[in-house]
């Protein structure tokens, strides 16, 4: 610490200004800090980067989370992009295991290569970690139509049923209101007929 104060004192001295500027020019690279410490990533962070990165890969229908995860997804709509992705994160490297469902009729090795490329690029870009291994297990092959039908959740079905029931109830309420209005008008007309003076 004493050296820092000595340098500061020298820079404050007349004629030392040029020396101070030269010293500062050498430290203009702010990409790395001189402060010691570690930067680590939780597995979920890497899984989320991977899950988000592979969402738009053509021919990849979904990353499969296994039986229990699929049951949970059948019950409730979720946007959990980490499902079906396992990672092992070290200080400088990442290994990835994932189960996928691929669209029927597509070139599976080509899709797998694309998945690996996207994962490697995104993880490197965001974390500077090296992806050393990506193991892809194709858990199923489906047509887009099969996948969409299978993706409908119980929550979706309940919502659809509630909307249908709501529309039905609304129509029935309208019919009841119309019937009451007609009955009221008929009753009102009869009462008016009875109130008119009658000449006998």
Automatic annotation (TrEMBL):
Protein's UniProt name: Stress response regulator gls24 homolog
Region span, Disordered: 1-35, 153-200
Polar residues composition-biased segments: 18-28
Similarity remark: Belongs to the asp23 family.
Highest taxon listed in the record's lineage: Bacteria
Residue ranges, compositional bias (Basic and acidic residues): 1-12, 172-181, 190-200
